[in-house]
């Protein structure tokens, strides 16, 4: 209302803005700069991303893990979010608490917890062997399966909250209308809920995909060095082998791919609306 | 056998009785309005009929069969929601075809019926539009076409015109009456707008506090209401005190007798008389009219009819709607004579 107050409010954001520029924007620009100057120069650095077999392998692993993480997460999260909107207020509070608990546990702790559950002598394998369901331990960790399990566990709460927000926005009278018009539960789901929640599904999937592409700790621990994803690969290039040229050019490439993905998504009006802008 | 019977339906939410022993019999093809202020139970009854809520006790009989346990999707009742509740992701045709697709009609038959419905509501040129590209009135027509397309036994309408402006509302009232006539479907129409109920329905059921206080044809309810609530809620009305001794009434600061069909028939120390603003004339009137003197306390210009706030010598106030050629603003503050025909006066006990 008052312009003096507005100006004052604007000044209050300055320290945070400076912090972001100093700690975030500048380092990123520096990474971009290094990727052009380190080693044998820009062209050679970026050319290697397309010719190196190691990079190709890492990119392939990253894509495969990220996509399967996204798909599995979305299925689990949709079931949970869909259940939540049909609960009583009391049940929903409990469910929301359950969904948010993982947020309070460090990623590191969660990764180690999964290792104790999934490893060969772990809780799951010894349990299955003692009841005689299997004779030899199943390889559940230090491979893609382990990485995917850990990442899905990390992503589900985010996806649930995003989907839940979208599903609560759906006008329940439209669902009632479908029933009054003779649609049975399966029809109501396939013809009303699913199509009307597509924007939410798209937003949540994009979020998880983008997040997965740059995941570091979970794949590093649960992959045990055998399932190498881009972020860990970059980290290894910097701290172990000192290959700044490769690390920075790969970082820049990841940044560009993610940026393009978002830009492409924002072309759709539903996505624009979901990310805050007006849809018109 | 009656077509649709609501038999002593009661519905409680905790201590609140949203429906309190409501009974109603509906003939096939009727246009019935459920009229009442908000919170009077009319929408609760409609939702019970549609199957969206489960009454605490009572029965709903369709062709003599209790349908209370049936799910909404198994009732074959069309429902037009407040705010229309169209499927935003489907086109106009897609919305109208929805009930036909879930009933697994074949494509040729669906196409023919959609065409027919589009023609019925005059939306042929907009068949491929999405709901958000339509005006309120157009969305309303889509909602009607969708709810009628599968040939429902009954069409339930929940304040369908409340979101429209006045001009469009009147137009849609005509449209709804036409649809009712042309389809022959039974309409149950919830509204809080007494004018809407009066102009559209064959019969009105007036709701108050979870009960039907009175039901009947619009003419009957308007001309001879038996409860104060209906006399007040349907159309404008004035209430003054009266009494009857030896067959002669006292009221409006004068004495008069009422025609037989209006008279209560017995003497009463105190009764309530009502007289609608439009039934009050200026001057002494003709022989046999009730004439009385009142002071003009307020004057509101109203086009063809001006509205006068009058005060009787007894201190009672009421409103008269008088033809604009007869009184002008200079009447303000004066004691003037007014009259009414005896048959326009009603008695409530």
Automatic annotation (TrEMBL), chain A:
Residues 59-265 form the ABC transmembrane type-1 domain. The keyword Membrane applies. InterPro entries: MetI-like (IPR000515), MetI-like_sf (IPR035906). It comes from the Bacteria. The chain crosses the membrane at residues 12-34, 54-82, 94-117, 145-167, 188-217, 246-266. GO terms for biological process: transmembrane transport. GO terms for cellular component: plasma membrane. It is a multi-pass membrane protein. Pfam families: BPD_transp_1. This is ABC transporter permease.
UniProtKB/TrEMBL annotation, chain B:
PROSITE patterns: ABC_TRANSPORTER_1 (PS00211), ABC_TRANSPORTER_2 (PS50893). InterPro entries: AAA+_ATPase, ABC_SmlMolc_Importer, ABC_transporter-like_ATP-bd, ABC_transporter-like_CS, Mo/tungstate-bd_C_term_dom, P-loop_NTPase. GO terms for biological process: putrescine transport. The keyword Transport applies. One of its GO terms (cellular component) is plasma membrane. SUPFAM superfamilies: MOP-like, P-loop containing nucleoside triphosphate hydrolases. GO terms for molecular function: ATP binding; ATP hydrolysis activity. Residues 4-234 form the ABC transporter domain. Keywords: ATP-binding, Nucleotide-binding, Transport. It comes from the Bacteria. The keyword Transcription does not apply. Belongs to the ABC transporter superfamily. This is ABC transporter ATP-binding protein.
């Amino acid at each position: 209302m008052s312009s003096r107050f507005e100006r004052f409010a604007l000044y209050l954001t300055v320290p945070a803005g400076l912090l972001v520029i100093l700690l975030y924007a500048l380092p990123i620009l520096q990474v971009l700069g290094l990727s052009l100057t380190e080693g044998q120069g820009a062209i050679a650095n970026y050319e290697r991303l397309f010719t190196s077999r190691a990079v190709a392998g890492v990119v392939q692993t990253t894509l495969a893990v990220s996509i399967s993480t996204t798909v599995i997460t979305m299925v689990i999260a949709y079931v949970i979010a869909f259940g939540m909107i049909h609960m009583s207020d009391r049940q929903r509070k409990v469910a929301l608490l359950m969904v948010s608990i993982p947020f309070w546990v460090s990623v590191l702790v969660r990764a180690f917890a999964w290792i104790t559950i999934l490893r060969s002598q772990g809780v799951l394998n010894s349990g299955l062997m003692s009841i005689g369901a299997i004779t030899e331990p199943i390889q559940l960790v230090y491979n893609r399966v382990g990485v995917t399990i850990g990442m899905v566990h990390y992503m589900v709460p985010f996806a649930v909250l995003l989907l839940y927000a979208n599903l609560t926005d759906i006008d329940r009278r439209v669902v009632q209308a479908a029933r009054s018009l003779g649609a049975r539960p399966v029809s109501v789901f396939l013809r009303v809920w699913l199509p009307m929640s597509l924007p939410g599904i798209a937003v949540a999937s994009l979020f998880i995909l983008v997040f997965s592409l740059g995941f570091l700790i979970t794949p590093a621990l649960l992959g045990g060095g055998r399932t190498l994803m881009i972020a860990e690969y970059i980290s290894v290039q910097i701290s172990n082998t000192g290959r700044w040229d490769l690390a920075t050019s790969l970082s820049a490439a990841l940044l560009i791919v993610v940026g393009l993905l978002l830009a492409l998504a924002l072309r759709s009006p539903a996505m624009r609306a979901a990310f805050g802008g007006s849809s018109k | 056998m009656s077509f649709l019977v609501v038999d002593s339906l009661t519905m409680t939410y905790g201590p609140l009785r949203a429906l309190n022993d409501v009974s109603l019999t509906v003939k096939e093809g009727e246009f019935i309005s459920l009229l009442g202020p908000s919170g009077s139970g009319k929408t609760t009854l409609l939702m019970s009929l549609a199957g969206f809520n489960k009454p605490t006790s009572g029965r709903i009989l369709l062709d003599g069969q209790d349908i209370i346990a049936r799910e909404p999707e198994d009732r074959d009742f069309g429902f037009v929601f407040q705010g229309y509740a169209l499927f935003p992701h489907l086109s106009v045709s897609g919305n109208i075809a929805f009930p036909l697709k879930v009933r697994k009609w074949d494509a040729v038959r669906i196409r023919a019926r959609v065409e027919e419905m589009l023609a019925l509501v005059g939306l042929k040129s907009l068949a491929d539009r999405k709901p958000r590209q339509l005006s309120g009135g157009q969305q309303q027509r889509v909602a009607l076409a969708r709810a009628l397309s599968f040939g429902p036994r009954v069409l339930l309408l929940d304040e369908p015109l409340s979101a429209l402006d006045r001009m469009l509302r009147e137009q849609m009232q005509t449209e709804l009456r036409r649809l009712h006539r042309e389809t022959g479907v039974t309409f149950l129409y919830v509204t809080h707008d007494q004018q809407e109920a009066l102009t559209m329905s064959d019969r009105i059921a007036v709701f108050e506090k979870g009960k039907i206080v009175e039901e009947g044809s619009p003419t009957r309810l308007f001309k001879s209401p038996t409860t104060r609530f209906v006399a007040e809620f349907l159309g404008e009305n004035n209430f003054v005190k009266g009494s009857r001794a030896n067959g002669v009434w006292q009221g409006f600061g004068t004495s008069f007798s009422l025609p037989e069909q209006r008279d209560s028939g017995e003497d009463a120390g105190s009764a309530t008389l009502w007289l609608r603003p439009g039934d009050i004339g200026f001057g002494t009137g003709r022989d046999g009219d009730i004439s009385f003197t009142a002071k003009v306390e307020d004057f509101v210009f109203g086009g063809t009819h001006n509205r006068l706030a009058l005060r009787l010598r007894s201190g009672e106030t009421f409103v008269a709607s008088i033809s604009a050629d007869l009184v002008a603003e200079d009447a303000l503050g004066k004691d003037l004579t007014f009259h009414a025909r005896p048959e326009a006066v009603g008695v409530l006990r």
